[in-house]
Amino acid sequence: MTQAELSELVKRSEFTPVAGLSAEDCVTLYYYMQLTRTFEMRLASFYRQGKMVGGVYLGTGNEATSVGATYTLEDRDILAPTHRDIGAHFVKGESLRAMALQLLGRAEGPTGGKDNGLHQGNKEINTLGMISHLGAMISVAAGAALASKIKKSGQVAIHFIGDGTSSIGDFHEGLNFASVMELPVVYIIENNQYAYSTPNSKQYACDWIAQRAHGFDMPGIVVDGTDVVEMYRVTKWAVERARRGEGPALIESQTMRMRGHSEHDSADYVPQKVMEKWEDKDPIDILKNYLRDWGVLTDVTREQIDEQIESEVEKAFEYALDAPVPEGPEAANGVYAR
Amino acid sequence: MRVEVVMPQMGESVAEGTIIKWHKQPGDAIEKDEILLEISTDKVDSEIPSSHEGKLAEITVEEGKTVDVGTTIAYIETEKDADIESSDNGESEKAEVAEDTAERSEEATAPANGEQIETKGRSGKDFYSPLVRSIAAKENVSQSELESIEGTGIGGRVRKQDLLGYLESRGTKPAARPTKQVQAIKYTGPMENVDVVEMDNIRKSIAKHMRTSLDTSAHVYSVSEVDMSKIVAFREKHKAEFQRKEGFKLTYTPFIADATVRALKDFPRVNASVDMDKGEVLEKRFVNLGMAVAIEDGLIVPVIKGADERSFLGLARETHRLANKARDKELDPDDVQGGTFTITNPGIFGNLYGLPIINQPQLGILGVGAIKKRPVVINDAIAIRSMMYLTLSYDHRVLDGAVGGQFLQRIVQYLEEFDGEGIL
Amino acid sequence: MAEITYIQAISEGLREEMQRDESVFLLGEDIGNYGGAFKVTKGFVEEFGEERVIDTPLAESAIFGMSIGAALQDMRPVAEMQFSDFVSTGFNQLVNNAAKIHYRWGAAVPMTVRMPTGGGVHGGPFHSQNTEAWFFHVPGLKLVAPSNPYDAKGLIKAAIRDKNPVLYFEHKYLYRREKQELSGDDFLVEIGKGRVAREGEDLTVLTYGSMVPTSLEAASHLESRIDVEVIDLRSLMPLDMELIIGSIKKTNKALIVHEDIKTGGIGAELSARITEEAFEWLDGPIRRVASIDTPVPFAPSLEEYFMPNPDKIAAGIQQLWDY
What are the pLDDT tens digits along chain A (338 aa)? Predict the structure, then answer.
């Protein structure tokens, strides 16, 4: 849905803007979060129906972090997402159709079937395609920010990092470099409590990963990553600061991966109690209630939006399922830029 | 130590040689470079000097026998040690490398650079490289022919250059292609009053080459007459002084050679060879002029290299030098190779003219007749002139009558317009 | 025309490209005020400022990651490895990130990595390696290895202008030994084109980098006996197969010479390619003269044994010729 279409549905008078977000902004955030959830649930059922090529890695529970943080960016800014950030891609401008084609490995998709998952980049909307070696994109995002600094273009980069990634050497190299050079880049750790099956207690010994920011001499902030408004507020602060040339920041979003590492993983290593606790903190429910309480979005209009989303997702996948797979010989093309 | 004496390769395409005479017998002492034996190949006869000082220990191939190049024909006993025996640079370098390798091979875990790589399994003589195989297939060289080629590679392997050399000597006609052999009619009469004379190598070689030439080229002939009076007069005037200055006689040969070389430069198509397989005529931009020389038991054709770059005097000197070498049987293989056109002189015995056979793979041969005084009509008056017939045999596959005729006329013109100004 | 060294040629090439194109910038350890470990970038920070001549922390992975990020924003970074040996700590960024981006999602990564390479300088196991083969196996990277000042300059400029990640192997041994007169003209050497360094008929030596002058010396020792053709590959990826195969079809014998160790080196692939494409043209086995399969030893006597030299190459030529 377009911003204008969404605005039509908003009841303005009863809402006081928070964190610089208007009622329309809040409804738009809801749209992207619900779109992400709907899209991902469709992937989960496709996986079970054998329609997917390869694994499916979902960001359920992560929607507020991806969407809220990315919503702070301008069109020209740089986004370096990770594999649980479908919402971030959407907010940055990737189309549903492109995303469906990509995840189904179709010829028309952004990688033309050459790479899987959320590995695509898009020069037009300035998203950088991630690689599976987590941590590698930390310095790549810094490099994009370095280009901005050299060109004095005022662009800011956001990069999402998982909690597991914070253990790899590239994390140190990248954050140190970005800080030494005072680059306009904001790092957001999506701390969803587990790296595959490894709990945080085995991943790091400090209380918060964000504590490490102090060692790099950059701000380190812990945020409730299930609250999109809070996520937006903190990120907005860091992005503006970076845009002013005051250097990078490290934001740790506390959230929960509500499904397995991938759809083949039942995540039974997560204690039932922990899962139940986080189920009460579903980011979409939180925003839903918030919008209802403020009277911005009635259940009726919200359901209208949900239906519209269902139909958009349906259409995107219908198209993608019918779209041709790449021709075999295409495998030989595109290794080098000409 | 005992060192081998092997049948040397006298010319790149030569595969075998015949021992004419051993100059030393077992037990004889021999100096380095002293003549050890005489051999004959289908190209030349040569005296072979000893490579070592010592005593001739054993002769393994008797006089009159023909063996492959590289075959051991004798042993010489020397007093020197093995490791300083070789004076050849390549050999000694190989020895060094081998030593180097021996050292390194002890370290089995780390293959050394520059190591000698041993070829295991089939090697040497029995192994033919992909290239040799593909050339052999293309040129219709049969397996038995391949096996007959003497290899110069390690272990006697036939290398590229060995096969190419073989093909060059074999000519463009693939030997493997079966040809209809005309059964020669042999004399079957009574043998009393018949002297049997064995043909020597050179005789056999001439026989083979003459027959091959007739089987190869489409011979046609043109004959022309030259007024040699100016040249005869010139020679008469200068011969005494020439003999005094140069030490040898001024013959007519350099005059004819000079005119022929100039005409060849005018008609490059005549100074050529042909590759029928490729459909190519190879016109040479240089003239290597063959001069047939009669020797004791036959005929040999030494070649004046770079004849087109020599002056009249240069041609005269080279002709003299080569003719002497030929008569003394001292021609090197190189002296008889690479000719692009040949002159022969049937007139030497007083005959008016002859029709020579082309010397393959050339395209023409000039036959020079005797110079005789004859009455000729000049401006409707009868005059006595020194006249000579020239015959040109040429290969009609490539040269038509027009070219052959014009070429011959050009030689006539150069001879008749001879102006001896400054040539001596 | 002035005579310049190989290392000056690299500097000139870099300087000219930085003057020509504002998107070109340098990053690496000690390259700024200090001018680089080998002084390739001496005076650059004064001319182009600290923003375009960046002294980095000691972090090879981040140096490459930063280069990739900047290249994706249409900059043309030139990253310097202080010694090519240290590339291993940034390996992942080159082989999994830079090399694969264009194939995966179509974005060009126009970055250059300068790789001071090779032995003969008594640097020991960690300052002497030839690391090209590590990357030769990686589709998406281009590899060049100049052997003389002309190619050094022409190739660094071509590498910077290329749209792909190019690893530029500059040989430390050649830095101040190779000299040449170069015109001040703006010239490029095309990546993917080799060069006939010496024409010959009898045998082809395929080589690159420091082994080009070494092989030429070996060839001249043998001049009276063997007419050796020496091909300077210049570009390792892509290889100039047309030139290589053409030469093999002429001489019918191939000796591959590289300073890198033998097993799994560029020579192994060259040998396989020649066999695949020109088997019927071979009049002997394809052989290699290379360093022995050990780490690069430190003591000069050990290093001498380890590496090819003109004598070892000449012996290799002679043996193959005799075959």
Answer: 888 888 888 876 667 778 899 999 999 999 999 999 999 999 999 998 888 888 899 999 999 999 999 999 999 999 999 999 999 999 999 999 999 999 999 999 999 999 998 999 999 999 999 999 999 999 999 999 999 999 999 999 999 999 999 999 999 999 999 999 999 999 999 999 999 999 999 999 999 999 999 999 999 999 999 999 999 999 999 999 999 999 999 999 999 999 999 988 889 999 999 999 999 999 999 999 999 988 888 889 999 999 999 999 999 999 999 999 999 999 999 999 99
Q: Which residues of C touch B113 (CB under 8 A)?
A: 262, 288-292, 307-308, 312, 316
B159 pLDDT tier (thresholds 50, 70, 90): very high
* DSSP 8-state class, residue A127: B
Domains present along chain C, CATH in parentheses = 2-182 (3.40.50.970), 195-322 (3.40.50.920)
| In contact, B14 and B333? CB cutoff 8 Å | yes
Q: Is residue A16 part of a domain?
A: no
Reading the block at residue B41, the tokens are 């190949």
Measured CA to CA, the distance from residue A231 to residue A62 in angstroms comes to: 11
Q: What angle do CA C116, C117, C118 make, to 5 degrees?
A: 150
Is the domain of B403 the same as that of B302? yes
pLDDT at B173: 52
pLDDT band at B106 (very low <50, low <70, confident <90, very high): very low
Q: Which residues pair with B342 in a beta bridge?
A: B290, B365
- Residue-wise pLDDT for C120-169, tens only, equals 988 999 999 999 999 999 999 999 999 999 999 999 999 999 999 999 99
State whether B109 and C284 contact (CB < 8 Å): no
Q: Decide if A88 contacts A79 (C-beta within 8 A).
A: yes
In a domain, B93, yes or no: no
| Residue from C122, C127, C171, C221 carrying the catalytic annotation | C127
Q: Crossing angle for the helix pair A63-70 and A228-243, nearest 10 degrees?
A: 40
ipTM score of complex: 0.94
In-domain check, residue A155: yes
Question: Would you state the structure tokens that stand for residue C296, as one six-digit string?
Answer: 């690069």
Q: Which of A294-298, B228-232, C186-190, C217-221 has the lowest mean pLDDT?
A: A294-298
What is the C-alpha to C-alpha distance for residues B58 and B24, in angstroms, rounded to an integer?
Answer: 10
**Rounded alpha-carbon distances, angstroms, from residue C322 to A295, C230, C283:** 95, 18, 11
Q: Which of A45-49, B71-75, C15-19 has the highest mean pLDDT?
A: C15-19
What distance in Å separates the CA atoms of residue C218 and residue C308, rounded to the nearest whole number? Answer: 11
Residue A156 lies in a domain: yes
Residue B307, domain extent:
218-416
| CA A189 to chain CA mean position, Å | 11
Q: Does an interface of 3+ CB pairs under 8 Å exist between B and A?
A: no
The helix (run of H) or strand (run of E) holding residue B60 is none
A12: in domain: no
* Domain assignment present for B401: yes
Judging contacts by C-beta atoms under 8 Å, the chain B residues touching residue C225 are 89-90
With an 8 Å Cβ cutoff, are C61 and A334 in contact? no
What CATH number is given to the structural domain containing A90?
A: 3.40.50.970
Domain that holds residue A123: 22-323
Domain count, chain B: 3
| CATH code of the domain containing B59 | 2.40.50.100
Tell me the one-letter amino acid at B72: T
> Are B279 and B335 part of one and the same domain?
yes
Per the domain annotation, does B55 fall within a domain? yes
Q: Do B and C share at least 3 CB pairs under 8 Å?
A: yes
B383 and B312 within one domain: yes
Place of tokens 């995840």: A103
Q: Select from C21, C52, C58, C66 the residue whose CB has the most chain A CBs within 10 Å, as the one to mutate to test that interface.
A: C66
Provide the domain count of chain A.
1
Instruction: Give the CATH number, domain containing residue B132.
Output: 4.10.320.10
